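Lab manual, section 2.4: Encoding a predicted structure.

Procedure: take the sequence of the chain (1174 residues), apply the prediction step described in section 2.3, and record the output as C-alpha cells. A sample record is shown.
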Amino acid sequence: MRGHMKKCIRKAAAAVLSAALLVTSESPAFAQNIQQTAVPADVITEQSRLEDGIAQTGYISDSFSEKRQEVQKEDTEGLLKSAAEQLPGQYRTQQLPAVRNQGGYGTCWAFSTIACMEINLMKKGYGETDLSELQLIYFATHSVKDKLGGLTGDDYVYTDTDINYLMRGGNYEMAVNTLSDWLSAAREESAPYETAADVLDTGLSDELAYADVAHLQNYRSYNLQNMEDVKQAVMDYGAVGISYYAYTYSGFASNQYYNADTAGYYCYDEQTTNHAVTVVGWDDDYPAQNFPTAPEGNGAWIVRNSWGSDFGEDGYFYISYYDQSLSGSAVAFEAEPADNYDNNYQYDGSAFAMMTGKQQFKAANVFTAKANENGTEQIAAASFEVMAKQMDYTVSIYTGLTDVDNPESGELKAQKSGSFSSGDKDNLLKTVAFDEPVTVNQGEIFSVVAAFAGSGGQSVMLYYDCARTLNGIQANCAAQPHQSYIYLNEYYGWSDYGNTNNTNFRIKAFTNNVAEPDTAVTAVKLNKHALELNWQQSEQLTAEVLPENAANKNVIWTSSDSGVAEVSQEGVVTAKGAGSAVITVETEDGKMQDSCTVTVKKPITDIKITGTGELKAGDKAALSVVILPQDTTDDTTVVWISSDTNIAAVDQNGLVTALSKGTVTITAKAGTHTAEHTLVITQAAPKPTESTTEATTEVTKPTQKPTESTTEATTEAPKPTQKPTEATTEATKPTESTTEVTKPSEQPTETPTQKPDTEPTKPDTEEKVVYEMRQDAEGVWHYYANDVIAADYCGMACNEYGWWYIQNGDVNFTYTGMACNEYGWWDFDNGMLDLTYTGMACNKYGWWYFTDGLLDLEYYGLGENEYGLWLYEDGRINFNYTGSITDGSQIYIIQKGYVTEISKVRCNLDPNDPYYNYEYAYRTGDTSVIKTDEQEAFFEGLSACLDAAFEYNTLFEQEKAVHDYMVLNSAYDYESYQNGTVPEVSHTAEGIFVYKTAVCDGYAGAFKLCMDILGIPCETITGTAGGIGHAWNAVMLDDEWYMVDVTWDDPVPDTPGQVLYGYFNITDEKMKQDHTYTSDITADGTKYYYLGMQENYFTDAEIDDYYAYISEKALETSGNVTITAMVESTDQEIDSEWLGTFTDSGRLEISYRELSLSVQWSGHIATFTWTLKR
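Recorded output:
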C-alpha cells in the first residue's frame, strides 16, 4: 500500500520538516517555529538527524544550473582530460581547519562556503579563523538596512511557513550574494552554530550583520569537467566547493554508492545534486576498486564533508572523477581580512539576480561619498560580477561629474585593466584594486565605470538585481534615478538603466576613511549598558568612537571578572560563570571609557535521581537528587511525586516509604526539569509466628477445610503484630549432626527408624558446648547442653535420625506444626521434621505452602488439600484474590483464594485461522505448537503486544495499549516505500511483530489480529488518502464504531517515545477530511474519542476556553511553566491564518517576562506548547 506518502506530507508539521531528500521528520528536536505541512515542489528536502542513522545534506541548485548543464553536455569529447603533464598526480592542501558538523539542518551550502573562506585565509598566511556558518545562513535569508543607505528599496525575507530556513537548504549563489554585501563572515563565537535552534525563535541582532572579520574578495566558478582548471584552482585557492548527489539513507554505512571501508563514493547513474562539500585535493591513482561499483577508470577528488570527523577518514572522503552527479560547477572563494576596506558602496541588495549584456559594452554605478562624516575617503578598489568565457575589462573611477547622466563626464582619477579566460562561461566576481587610491570628499559624486569586451565573438553577461520569490525567499529590488547606467554604443550613449528597469548593476566601490590628523577621540559609547546572559551564551557588544572622523578608533576591551564574563577584543562577551562582571571599553586615544554590567545566570540543565532501585514493603530509603550545574542560579527547590501512593509514598525530602508490592515511578521536579526513578517494591517476607518460644502444640496439621481464619484468628487471617524472629541462637540449618550429638543409647518408641541421608552438624562456638539428645532414667527424651537439660530452649535440634522439635528442653513427639531456624520455616509432623512433605500447613497467621518440608516464600501457584485447590502467592493462600488464572489449557475460576471452577481455555480465533496457534500458545503457555524460528519470533512480538494490553481491564484501555505498543515498537518502512522496493513481509503483521517495520496494510493487519484475540470487533478499511491506496481499521466499543489509523499515528522518521493520537478512535466525519472510502460501517462513536477525553483538548470554536486554560495553568505556579494544549480544526485545513488565532499572546490573562511558543500538528489536530518565564 502506498497511502503513507500523503501521511508523510500531512504529518510533517507535527515536527521538523527537513531539507534534502524528500523526507519529513516527526522529531521535535528543532521544532522551534510554527511549521506547516505541504512541501513545495521546488524544495529538495533534507534527511533528519545523524542520530537516526541518516546523514544531512541541503544543497539547492542555483539559478543557472540548467545553463551550466547544457554547456557541459555540448562538450563531452575528452571528458576527463589528463593533467599529468602540468599538475602532480596527487595533491592535498596542507593547512586545513578542523572538520565541522552541520548537525540535523540543511546547511551544507554554508559549511562548504565557510570552509573555502577559512582555507583560503590559511593559505594566505592569516592562520586558522573559525567563521560562523549560522551568521551566513541567517543573513542570506534575512536582509538588514545598509549602513550607507545604498540598498534602500532592496530587501528580502524568508516567508516559507512550511519549512524553516535552516532546513530549506541553499546554494553558493546565496552565499556569494551575502558575502559580497558584507553581511557575513563573522567569528563563530558571534553566532555559534550550537544556538541554531534558539536563533529560529529569536533571530540575530541586525548589529551582528556587519560584525564580519573577513571579506569576499573574488569568486569564480569552473566547469567540473575541465579538471585541469579545477585542480589549478585547488592549488591556487586551497579549496573549491562542489555539489553532488549524496545517498544518505544509510548514514555513514556502506551503500550502493559509498564504501565505508575505503571512504570511496561513486554515483554511477544520473541523480540530482543535493549536497555541497569542499574539494581540497585529488589522487589520479585512487583505485577504481575502492568504490562499491568500479567506474571506468582510477582517480578521485579528495573531499571535506560537513558531517563531523566520524565520517569517512576523519571527515574526508573520495569522489570518483567519473561520478555522474558531478554535473555542476566547482567554485573558488578568495578572502581577505575585513580591515582591508572600511566602506562598501553598493546598490544591489536583492537576494537574486539576472543578467544582461553583449559582446562589448560599458556599465556604471554612480555614488555619493557619505561614509566619513566631516572627513574624506579614499576609493581603494571596485568590483563587478559577470558570466563570461573570454573577455577584457577596464575599471575606471571618475570624480567631479559635470553631467549627472554621464558617468564619464568627470575627471578620470584611476583606471585598471585585465582579462579573463576560461574553457566555459563561468561566473566571476572580480575585485579590482587600484594602484593609487582616489580621494573623495564628503558629498562628492563619483562613478565606477566597467568596460567589457568579449573575445572571439563571446558575449559578456553582467549581473543585476531582480525581484523574485524562490526557495522560500521573497526578494524585492528598487532603483533610484542616476544610479546605474549602461552604454551599448555611441549612437545610444549612456542611458539610465536603473531608472528604466527599476534595478541596479552589481558594481561596487570600496573605500577607506581618512581621519583628520588633529581629530582626537572625545567619547566612546556602547550599544548596551546592561546585559543578561545564560552560562556559555555569547553576545556582541559594539563600541562607537566619537567623533566619527577620529584619527585613532582603536579600543581595548576588559572584564572585571573573566571568571564570570570574558570579552574578546572584538567585543564578543561570553558568559563563563554565575555572577556579575563589568565589561569596559577604553579608547587608545584619550583613554575614554564606557561600560556594560553583565549578569550571568546558570540555568538548570539537568537533574538526576540517585538511590536504591528496590525496597521491601515496610522499609524506607532516602533518594537524593543531583542538580546540574551545581552552581545554578535557578531555584533549586525540588518537588517529589510518587506515581502511585498505594505502592510507595515520598515526602518532600525524598524519603520513600514502601507500602505494598509493585513498581512505582518517583519523579523529582526542579524548575522546568524533571527526573524519574523506578522503584520495585517487593513483598516483605511473611513470618508465620512472632517467635519460636511462642510455638505450641495447638497448631496442627490441617484436618478440616481451611478458611480465612484459624481457630486462633479472626475471620481474616491477621498479619503479625511485630516482626517475628527467624531463629534462636541454638537453631541450626538441618544438616549432618556434629560429633557432639550421639546416637541415643536407647531408642524411644516414637523415634523415627529411617536414617537421614546426611549427618546433622552443629556450628562451632567460642565456648565449647556439647549438645545431645538422650533418654533419662524414666525413658523421657531430653535435649542437653553440657549434660544439663536445656529447659529454656524451644526449637529445632537433630541427632543422627533426623530433626526434632524441642519444647522446654524435651523432645515433643506430639507436635505437628511449624518451627524455624535461620534458614527458614520447616514443617514438623509428630515432633519430627518431614523433609519429604510438599503441601499445605498453617499457623494462626495463615495457610502456607511447603516444598520438601521448607516454607516456600516465593511460591506462586495452586496448592491442594482434601478440600480442594487454593491459590498461593508468596507462599501463602491469598484469600483476597477473586478472578481467574490460566495454567496450560486450564482456566481456574477463583473466589477468595479458593478454586470454584475449572474450565478449558477458550480462544477467540477460529481454529482454522492461520494465527490460531499463536493465540492458543499465548493463552495456555503450551508453545509446542510453535515449530520454527520464524514462528517463535512472531510469537515473541505478538506476546509482548498482548502483554501490554492485558495490563488493563477495559476493552478501551486494551485497544489503546495495542495502538501505543505498535507505534512505540515499530517504524514505517519508508525507505523501501520511497525506493519502490517494499518487501512482501512489510504488508503483513509479521512486519510489525518480527521485523518491527511495515507499511499501512501491515499495521492494519497486526492491529486487527490483536483486536480479534482480545475479542474486540474490528474490521480492515481500505480506500485512498491523497489519491493513494491506503488501509486502516474500524473498531467497535460499547456497540459504537470508531476509525483507527495506526499508520498515520506513527511518526516518520521513527521518533522514540512519541505517539500521535490524531487518528485514534475518530468518527467518519473526521477521518474523511483526508481519507476517501466507502464502507457499510458507520463510525459515529464519540465516547472513546481519546483526544476529546483530555482536559487540554479544545475545538477551534472553544477559543475562549483555550486561552483561559493556558492562563489558568500558568497561574498555578509563580515560576517558569510549560503548558501544552491541543486544538482541533473542525471545518478547514490548518494554515497560518488559523494558527495565528491560537498564538495571540495578547489574549493571555497573565503577565510574563519572556514567552516562547511552538506548534506541531498531525492532520486536523494542532498542539501548542507555551513556555512562559514569569
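Check your result against the sample. The CA atoms of residues 590 and 995 lie 75 Å apart.
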